[in-house]
Structure formats: structure tokens, C-alpha cells
């Protein structure tokens, strides 16, 4: 089978979809570009499907590299024949390949190898055939040199047989099938670590089928093991496993058969079993990583696609008690206009002075909205702001602070605000997150945003790759304003990267705003391929061409012009006149390269040019009767905001320091596979309190349907 057919079968796709996608990727096209502008060639595959094709192709490529290394190694040993070569070439996965290679793999000086050095392999072959009724007499002939006696000879021969058993492909596959079916994962507390490892109490005495162990529980156990509090093991029924492989090796009931029986048992317990435990430890961790990374990526997507306030003048507050509340005023583009500190809370309690100062700032800078960080003193600061009467309508929002401290100490923040300290930078970030979450959050390492589960325990390279691609997909889905986007935001645009993003910013600074997309070609080092990849995702409002403020790619401008011409109109009128657009029959404009999917996208863009795909933002208010966990009452319903979604449930902020947990079983009145079927990040929900554990600072909630 070809790579295309294998991938198509694995992903339930057509071969042409896989083939065309891989060709486009090889030509340097990016995932967002292929998904948006090459729908005819891919059969309308989305970003996730294209990324999966890319990953599958890379796995097959790695498998092929390993095959070549294995073939070379066996050939150098002089043991490669046509049958073995074909078997390796036809191999479809890495586990199968390694099983084939195992007998030929260079080994350490094992017990079997030592026995071979003593000249005992011929004796092992005699016994393994099981025709010899008196193996001891045969062994006598091998008692010489380093072989002390008959017992030593038989022991050496048994160790060679045990190794043959452990390297047998069929035996290994049978044991593997049993592990897949009934392996048990067990977790126990390390003696004497009960108090120190209290946070892993749920795993002090746990045993369950491995295939039913959820990713978050497995990762929690592995973390406890890594920190020295737990001992975790994976096992399968030894007797059942042995019963499956005895028939492969034992023939008859001779004395030789008895030796083989014991050698099979030794080979299983000493060699196959540890190997399988290691294999399933690795594979179960990889599966748990995959699930956790998937959850993290979905949460990150929801966070990046959160509703923006837009270009409004914002006053942002980073709340605090002793050190005060850092206040900044930003213009509609997010530029810092003013900063200072107020002290409305204990111990200073300068409430009246702080109220006067905030009122003055709102009036002076014509503030339209106030953004408050959700950290320490957030609720008190929100209530303080709500108590002030302003001279205008001012919306008040509470936004997540996650990662703000990371940003404020980063080189990016120092570059943006070299003359301000970290507290000012953090407050600016809180304000900008309200205006445009996507533009601000791309400056922060995605792992630091705090919307995953066990992010430090999963494979870091796979996590980074997934999160980076998620950021790229989100930025390109929304598109960016070419004349206002920061270089950090431009970096994620299809076809650009850090250097071209910097070149665009430099060109903009030297030559002023771009008037049309065509001017991008004047940017140093931005060639035709980069232009093709990036142009459709860069917007220019109030430019020379109204199509530059849409997701219509420049390569399709000719079709839009023809549509307008056929109606005796122009592009401006076509965009502004809905009745005129209704007269267009898209199928008339199908060409060899542009089909109905692209034409449908063009019509949607003409209908809503420059539309932000993100939802409009909504004001949210917590219940004013609660501030701390002690105020939370069992059985009472509270409004809340979803702050994190995991495989086992969702965490909800109801206005106290501790987020409550809605377990997956409490999220709907019917069975659901994943919490993401019911809730999304930052969703406004109503929850009822089931349990409050003040000592452990835990709140159990149920979702009101």
C-alpha cells in the first residue's frame, strides 16, 4: 500500500484528498492556507484533518527510516534473506517492526549470550526439538571449559531457549493481545510518604483496568510516581498469558519438554513480561498525553477566540491589597496613556481618594470600559468600581489574569514598555485582553495561560507543536489588520514568521500605512510564495480596494470583478447592495481551479466584509452575597464563568478565590463523552452547590440545564 492509501484508510478519507494535501504541504503551503483557499483540491478538509494527514505522513516516514536501519543492520550481520526483507518492508507499525528485529538486535551480554559463549547453543537446539528423552546424558558431552557440570549445561541451554521464546513474534503478539484486553494499572503509596503525599490520596490504593483508566487519572498517578509518593505498575494475568504461549513451544511430554516448559515460563516472567509492562507504560502515557493535549488545544482555541470588546478606550486595573491596585488608561488602539496606583482596600483603606481618582481618569481619558483582573482582591475591586457613579456609561468586565505575570517579565513586554515596571505591563495586558484577547495572548507562551490539565507532565514537544498550530489556526481564522497588528501577531500569519513580520512593521514605520495588499510585495524578502500564503489573512480597512478588507484572496479578485461587470456594476456597489448580489449565479463562474466551495466563501465574504468571526462580548456579574468560600451555601444557585475544561469536568468561577468543579456526571441529564459537548471556556453558566469542603478548599457543583 502507498502512503496515500494507508493514510486515507486510517483517517477514512479519499486517496486524492490525502495526495493533494501532501503535495500542497510539500510545495510550502501552510495548513490555514490549504484549508481556506484550496478546498477544491482537498475536498474541503479542515485544519484538524490536514494536520492529522501531516502527522500520519511523518509517522510513516519515520517508520520507513527505521525499516532501512533495521534492514541495514541485519544485512551487515549476513542474515538478511528475501523472505525477511519482504516481511520488514510489508510491516505497518513500529511495534511489529521491533518484534521482527528483536532476534537480530545487538544485545548486551545477556545470560543467553554467556551460555552461547560456553558453546551451549547446540544443546539448546537439541532440547528445543523435544525429541531427546534423556537430555542429561546429552548435556554431559558439553561439560568442558567454562561449563562446570550437567546442571550448568542444562541451565545455560534453558536460558538460550528462554531468549528464543521472548523473541518469538507470535508469542509476543499473543501476550500483547492479553495486555490490551485485561491489563491492570495499580497505584500504591510509598510507605512513610502518606502525609507528605496527601494531595495524591485518591491514588494511595487504586487498581483498575488500564483501558478504562482516564487520561487525567493516569497522568496524576505518573506525577505522584515521579515525585516519589506513589508506586505505579501495569500487570496482566500471568497464568492466562502462559497458557496462550505454551502451545507454541511445548511438543509432547518428554523430559526435554519439561525443560522447555520451564524455559517458556522463565522467558515470559524474566523477559517478555517486563518488556510488555514497559511497552504499555509508554503507550498508555502516550495516549494520555494525546488526550490531555487535545483538551488543552481545544481550551486554548476557545480562549483565543474569546469575544473581543474591540477598539474602545479602556481603564484596566490589576487588583491588590497591600501593594494597591495598579491602574492604567489605554486608548482605542491599546496604547498606554497614563498609569498610577490606588489603595481602596486594607490596610490603607483610601477608598474616597481612590473613587475620586478613578472618576477623574474616566472623565479625562473618556473611558468606555473598565477591565479588572480576576486575581487577588478582584471581587472587592469590582464592587468598589460598581459603587462609583460616572459621568457616562461605563461597562465593567472581569478578565482572566492567567499568564499576565509571565508576559510582564518577558522580553516582549520589556521591548514594548522599556520604561515601565512589571506591574504596569501586567495591568496593560489585562486591559488589552479585554479589547482583543487573541492579539494579546499570542505574546504569552501558551503553556502559561493555564487552560490545560497536567500540561507539565505531557510530552513537551508534542504539546508545543499542538498549541503553536492552534494559535496559527486561530490567528488566521480571524485575520489581522495589516496596519495595526503587532509583529508578534503577524508572526503567526500564514507564510510569514518572525523575520517577515518584523520587515512588515519596519516597512510600515518607514512608509506609512498600507493602502492595498499589492504593496506587500514591496516589503523586503516577502516573495511571491509568502505573498500567496499570507495575503488573504491580512485585512486593510479603508484602503484602495474594498476586497482587501475581506478574506477573499487576491487570486480571486478577477472573478469578483467579472461578477460586478456582468451585473453592470462595480465591486463597491456589489458589496453594499444585497439585492444585487442575489442575482449572482455562482455556478456560472466555475473554472478549472475554482469551484463552488471557493465561490460560496466569496459570496459569504461579500455579504459581510470585515466581519469578526468572534462573538460579541457580554457583561457578567457575580452574586454580590458571596466573597469567600465561607459565604458559599449548599443548595444555593450562583452565576459563574467556566475557567477550565478538562476530561473529567469543568471548573467554574462563582466569585470566590476557589473555583468550583462540575464533574462530568453533573453536567447534563444524559450521558456525555466529554465536558466540551456541554460547555466552553468563558461560558456564562448557572450552577448549584452540592458540597463545600472548607478544609480542602473544594466546591462541588452541578450544572443547571
Q: How is this structure best described in words?
A:
- The protein has 705 residues and is an alpha/beta fold.
- Helices cover 48% and strands 12% of the residues.
- It is built from 29 helices and 15 strands.
- Helix 8 packs across helix 11 and helix 13 (215-226) packs across helix 15.
Radius of gyration equals 33 Å
Q: How much helicity do the residues have?
A: 40-55%
Widest sheet, order of strands? 6-5-4-7-8
Q: What structural class is derived from the secondary structure elements?
A: alpha/beta
Most strands sheet: 5 strands, mixed
Total count of strands: 15
Enumerate how many helices there are, as a single number. 29
Coarse shape: globular
Task: Give a topology summary.
Blueprint: H1 3-11, H2 15-26, H3 31-37, H4 39-42, H5 47-76, H6 82-90, H7 94-101, H8 111-117, H9 121-129, H10 135-140, H11 150-166, H12 169-182, E1 184-189, E2 205-209, H13 215-226, E3 230-235, H14 238-249, H15 255-304, E4 314-318, E5 325-330, E6 336-342, H16 351-364, E7 369-373, H17 378-386, E8 395-399, H18 404-408, H19 411-416, H20 422-435, H21 437-441, H22 460-478, E9 480-481, H23 487-490, H24 498-511, H25 528-534, E10 538-539, H26 557-566, H27 571-576, H28 578-581, H29 596-607, E11 637-645, E12 649-653, E13 660-663, E14 684-693, E15 698-703
Parallel strand pairs: 4-7, 7-8, 9-10, 13-15
Antiparallel strand pairs: 1-2, 1-3, 4-5, 5-6, 11-12, 11-14, 12-13, 14-15
